[in-house]
Design goal:
The complex is a heterodimer. Chain A contains 7 helices and 3 strands. Chain A is an alpha+beta fold. Chain A has a single domain (4-135), classed as Alpha-Beta Complex (Sufe protein. Chain: A). Chain A has a 3-stranded antiparallel sheet with strand order 1-2-3. In chain A, α2 (21-33) packs across α3. The chains are: A alpha+beta, B alpha/beta. Bound molecules: pyridoxal-5'-phosphate. Residues 31, 94-96, 125, 127-128, 173, 177, 202, 204-205, 225, 227, 369 of chain B line the site of pyridoxal-5'-phosphate (PLP).
Chain lengths: 137, 411
Amino acid sequence: MSSLAETKAAVVEEFSMFDEWLDKYEYLIELGKNLEVFPVELKTDERLIKGCQSRVWLDTQVQDGVLRFRADSDAIITKGIISLLIRVYDGRSAQEIAADNFDFVEQIGLRENLSPTRANGLNSMIETIRKEAERNV
Amino acid sequence: MHLMDIDQIRSQFPQLKEKVYGRQLVYLDNAATSLRPVSVAEKWAEMSLRHNSNLHRAVHKTAVDATEEYESTRAAVAAFIGAAAPEEIVFTSGTTQSSNLLASCLEHGNFFAEGDEILICEAEHHSNIVPWQMVAARKGLKIKVLPIDDRGQILISELGNLLTPRTKICAVAQASNVLGIINPIRKIADICHANGTLVFVDGAQGIPHLPTDVKEMDCDFYAFSGHKMYAAPGTGILYGKRSLLEALPPYMGGGEMIESVSWEKTTYAPVPRRFEAGTQNISGVPSLRPAMEMCKLLAGREITAETERVKTFLLGFFSAHPDITLYGNPDDPAEKLPIFSITVKGAHHEDLALILDKMGIATRSGQMCAEPLMDGFGVTGMLRASFAPYNTMQEAVYFTECLQKAIDMLK
Ligand SMILES: Cc1ncc(COP(=O)(O)O)c(C=O)c1O
């Protein structure tokens, strides 16, 4: 498994290929469609993240000393973003995640270019991942 | 006023020329707030830069000018909506404040007794639901819901059954911000009045599109927001029949709403100033005058013909589209404003809005402050394209092309 820094750099590198917003979205939609299926029984209110116009469910498990994330959304672009977050943070230690600054989100231009309500949703997602990590340190 | 063609009209709204992400902006979020014409911005600036002074208070020339601007706007609004007198127009910060003011003053005027009922239409905006719920909770009132049918039309046949001797007021929109359906206010008012029930009409969406006459509608109270009809944000009105307003206690206490103040006894100014405590929106309110002029211009034949073409085209497009459900589809298209809320099979409203945004098109997605209505239709949200009279057929066509592209991307 590559390091957190390497994975983040790889994501940033991938997104640097797109000059057009619509191409970025095409890619996120593709990622969203390929996101691992999220069990319906996990779609509980406790797993629902507040602050998104679209609904987002996040499930966190601790397994062999690392955090495992699974998530879903009813909106596909959000699912694409979730897929990026999972790719970067799934399977890493709580310490490592809690210490991270989540800067790659800004570097791929997601935070400022998603609509304000969506950016809040993204913030809420990141906050939830960070809190889960801190809780498990 | 001479007639203007659509290009001349559009040149009055500079924001129509803006670009977003390097593309031409196509503004289809007019139901949220309209764009401002130059005339409104100029009046607004003029009030700030030349006639700025507090109202009603000082004898100096500038104060007199500012007060004259403000009060003549009141008279102009009264004429615009067919009120009997300027005293029937209360300036507020917008529809939301108007409905809150009314609910609160009725409550404090002991208009309601425990067990009384308020009837609210199912399609209302939260600002015409929540203030009533708040009063209901404090006073032990019952809220009843006036339902709509599948097409979004009020089930007027139900109205008689829902009214009881305890129904004190019926709250209903002139037109829904989601469905765009124009409600039969006069019919509703006649039925309610025969039952001794007052009628409050939320005109936020109606006023920019419809010739409005409160006497013809025979509503008891009427509200609208300036910012949805081209005027400055933070302006709005509550109209009330004079005898009804006069029976109400003040809303907030403060400067300008009093007749005299002493430690022993304070008395209140007559209507409408009784309801206008504190410094008012002295720069914004006069912008309602050029805004109303713009409404009249936009009601011209050429412009309304274009809006009708847009409506016919979009109604045709949506009903022919296999994946699109349109909400608010009355038997007679004349009963619908050019406000189109849809859901698309297999595509989330937010994804659609995000993609359209990147194509330069401003739409609204989500629950649009009408959660009970969304629940009623069993959806978590919709995509809304709301057109103003200055929008064109060309923009409507571009919108449908982009919408189709977005749907294809998401499939
Ligand atoms: C039908 C309707 N009523 C009330 C409101 C509230 O208006 P405001 O936010 O200007 O007070 C709106 C605006 O969204 C509306 O569309």
